[in-house]
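Possible regression after last week's pipeline update?

I re-ran a chain I had predicted before the update to compare outputs. Posting the input and the new output here so someone can diff against the archived version. Not blocking, just want to make sure nothing changed silently.
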Amino acid sequence: MSDVLTPSQRSFCMSRIQGKNTKPELILRKALWACGMRYRLKSRLPGRPDLYFPGKKLAVFVDGCFWHGCPDHCQAPKTNHSFWQKKLSNNKERDKEVNLLLKNEGWRVLRFWEHEVKNDLDGCIERIAREFQSADR
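New output (post-update):
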């Protein structure tokens, strides 16, 4: 099936997609704050984590299912297939590189899919809390 939008309409729609402060990020941040877990947002760390705990050296990313190639939910667009396949593949590779860079600098990295935050917020909070507490040991 071809795209139902014109190229200019599609371009406009794609330009409106946020790179930060997405709904899943905000949901996770509010829940963490309510649990008393204080985090930082703006960082110069590799990959620019969505939030991080400097004292615990814990970086947290909330990955969008489409942009990061979720195996359960990502459906590559039918049009311009080679572009999107390369784009999504590069995103996955960059995620792996960022994880490695952070780990080499002594950081622990947690990544959550956006659907995990939406469907199992408590589970996400528990994983962060476990990592948070294990840093004290």
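Follow-up from reviewer: compared with the archived run. The chain has five helices and three strands. Marking as no regression found.
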